[in-house]
Design a protein that fits this description.
The relative contact order is 0.09. β5 and β6 (about 160-165) form a beta hairpin. The chain is of the alpha/beta class. The strands form 2 sheets. It has a 6-stranded mixed β-sheet, sandwiched between helices. The chain has a 4-stranded antiparallel β-sheet with strand order 7-10-9-8. The protein has helices at about 5-15, 30-50, 65-80, 90-100, 100-120, 130-145, 170-180, 195-210, 215-245, 255-260, 265-280, 285-295; strands at about 25, 50-60, 85-90, 125, 160, 160-165, 255, 300-305, 310-315, 315-320. α2 packs across α7, α4 (about 90-100) crosses α5 and α6 (about 130-145) crosses α8 (about 195-210).
């Protein structure tokens, strides 16, 4: 086991990221990051008695190169005795059909496939090759998109059944590992284009900042991400305590105005966020601000959430009403 592989194992054991005897599915593209992940997991497989599987998606976006990627992934997995599940998608057609970008369509198809493989084969978790630079790009992307403070927490190590053990390492460290150990990988030529926002950040913005503030951007954004996750954990505990103490029940489809008015605006937004998510509504900044302003008006006022739902201040409650239950029209809160 190399020094880098030992460090990988140490980080995993310190954070308790991977458990002994787990059956893990590796998201394998054939690129440098996923190939490093494959070799690192193989290196610690005997220590934790892991059972490894891989899944590759062929999105048919790069002609013959896409097919070569699929063959490469299967060949590399075969060397380690790892089953590689693969699937080919008509991504452009799916993007047109679902009216979304190629990137969004590919992501949706990818995770649908991964979830299917995990379910059908009774695997434990998915492992992806996101690293520290990906995390930095995500933070900057969220910042420019107008994210909230908690949006700057970046990519978590674990999300439900998705594990990201390479977040400890930078792209430079991963490339060093590949080169020093002669590990082959495929190069996606589309990554050299800065048309996509994330590629623009990766190829233009981050190098420009690092040329001025050398070796500071990635470590500082990693630290910001860590602080954001710690803050998020504290907030979740705090809000859960508030929900319990105020006896808030989202399934009741109503909230107490009196209880909400005892909270700070930040706490109100966190309650409303969970309230909207309970009703499968995106808790965007505009909706949260409208609901908080509703508390500054009077009974009879409302906020229209979408075509099906609205929140009406009736008596001492904010009530969720569906389109078919509306009887009276009110003026929407500013």
């Amino acid at each position: 086991m190399t020094k880098f592989e030992k460090k990988f194992l140490e980080n995993i054991q310190t954070k308790s990221l991977i458990h002994r005897d787990e059956k893990l599915l590796i998201a394998l593209s054939g690129g440098p990051d996923s190939m490093a992940l494959l070799h690192l997991l193989v290196s610690i497989r005997p220590v934790l008695n892991l059972r490894l599987y891989a899944a590759h998606c062929n999105f048919k976006l790069r002609d013959e190169d896409s097919d070569e990627d699929a063959r490469f992934c299967k060949d590399q997995c075969k060397k380690f005795g790892i089953i590689c599940y693969d699937k080919t998608f008509e991504t452009k057609a799916y993007a047109t059909q679902t009216k979304q970008s190629i990137e969004a369509a590919a992501r949706e198809l990818r995770y649908q496939f991964f979830n299917k493989v995990i379910t059908e084969n009774q695997l434990d978790r998915l492992v992806t090759a996101h690293h520290a630079n990906d995390n930095a790009e995500t933070i900057l992307f969220n910042l420019f998109r107008g994210s909230s403070l908690l949006g700057l927490k970046g990519i978590p190590y674990v999300t439900e059944k998705i594990l990201r053990p390479l977040l400890f390492f930078t792209r430079h460290e991963i490339m060093d590992y590949l080169h020093h150990n002669n590990i082959p990988y495929r190069v996606d030529k589309t990554n050299a284009s800065d048309d996509a926002d994330r590629n623009f950040l990766r190829l233009k913005v981050i190098p420009l900042i690092e040329s001025r503030f050398q070796h500071k951007l990635i470590p500082n954004l990693t630290r910001l991400s860590k602080n954001g996750r710690e803050l998020d954990e504290f907030i979740q505990d705090h809000i859960n305590h508030k929900i319990k103490s105020l006896r808030i029940d989202f399934s009741a489809n109503e909230l107490s105005v009196t209880a909400l008015k005892t909270l700070s605006i930040f706490e109100q937004k966190e309650i409303f966020k969970r309230f909207l998510l309970h009703h499968s509504i995106d808790p965007d900044a505009k909706r949260l601000a409208q609901l908080c302003r509703l508390l500054e008006t009077q009974p009879g006022r409302k906020v229209v959430l979408n075509r099906q739902l609205e929140v009406l201040w009736k008596g001492k409650k904010l009530k969720v009403l569906r389109a078919e239950t509306r009887k009276v029209k009110f003026t929407e809160a500013d």
